[in-house]
Design brief:
Layout: E1 4-7, E2 10-13, E3 18-24, E4 33-39, E5 46-52, E6 57-59, E7 67-72, E8 77-82, E9 91-99, E10 102-105, E11 109-114
Parallel strand pairs: 2-11
Antiparallel strand pairs: 1-3, 3-8, 4-5, 4-9, 5-6, 7-8, 9-10, 9-11
Length: about 120
């Protein structure tokens, strides 16, 4: 099992930046993969960015070149640096961890981008 705690959401103007952090309750190198998802009301949760245990990353087309996922093993943390934010990035962002075929989720953090 793993518990995940997100932080860093908030309100920002279009073009601005935010950094989300997700702290895991176990060493991140013991986790197969971690990712950030987002969800808006009435829509399915969608993958934003992911990082594997080996460090491979992947991004949704809509955030490629603007968002960067990274990790800090000394703090059991995965971060999402979000630059050039757009109003359509507004959503609740969730941290995800996959361990032994099971998915674990954080409580979510709201990101609101004003135009």
């Amino acid at each position: 099992q793993v518990q995940l705690v997100e932080s860093g959401g908030g309100l920002v103007q279009a073009g601005g930046s935010l950094r989300l952090s997700c702290v895991a309750s176990r060493p991140i190198y013991s986790i197969n993969s971690m990712a950030w998802f987002r969800q808006v009301p009435g829509k399915q949760r969608e993958l934003v960015a992911g990082i594997t245990r080996r460090g491979s990353t992947n991004y949704a087309d809509s955030v490629q070149g603007r968002f960067t996922i990274s990790r800090d093993a000394t703090k059991n943390t995965v971060n999402l640096q979000m630059n050039s934010l757009k109003p359509e990035d507004t959503a609740v962002y969730y941290c995800n961890a996959e361990v032994s075929g099971y998915d674990y989720w954080g409580q979510g953090t709201q990101v609101t981008v004003s135009s």
